[in-house]
């Protein structure tokens, strides 16, 4: 799994500024994610910025007091750079090209993407970095079709964790399950919700997920009688890792950093830690176990 954070995006842009032709005088972002990349690039180059629809309409986005002296009438911008955050199939850029083709024949228009796959580079004039798949970006992770091939924790991810007082395995905890507010709000269907919540709280959990429009295919809960049994088992990360191993998922999204490391090491697969906003990768032993499982799976034809 190739992951890029917002910090990575900014770093990739700043270390590749020399790729941008000096004559570029207007940056245009492709909605939606391309606007983030284009805005960062425009800031670093001290250039005016707009979106595709703004460009079509001949409109430059307001840039504040500092940029007022740099803003020119739209007709005077001659060298335009259209920016996407990433290119995969090239369909988004191709769609933009069809909109802009012949619109302003007096302007020279170039196309770029911050992250590209080699197969799609013929659709753009240049790129900042090759980032092959499977890949996922921090700025659109919760709204990516890839979520259907992911495992998700609930507490700390879809909602905040309960406090010690709320986590009484009784009325206070039931009140928490019914009333806790959503935290991250994925807009795509999640493949597997994997939680250390006890099976006896399934109905309350399912009701909360329904009320907050969380779409998912499977809800896998810990089948133990009570909190005391869960604490005695002390297998929080191990339980989640077992589900991750069993199912053909690309990524596990977990809140706790220590559980993230445990899940990654046991499964041999990456885990995204929401608490620290970083990807956690397995140690060498975990990687070896993962590769061994792949070999065995291939040999038995499953």
TrEMBL record:
One Gene Ontology term of the molecular function aspect: glycosyltransferase activity
Keywords: Glycosyltransferase, Transferase
Gene3D superfamilies linked to this entry: 3.40.50.2020, HAD superfamily/HAD-like
The keyword Protease appears for this protein: no
Domain Phosphoribosyltransferase: 9-132
CDD domains membership: PRTases_typeI (cd06223)
Name used for this protein in its record: Phosphoribosyltransferase
InterPro entries on file: HAD_sf, PRTase-like, PRTase_dom
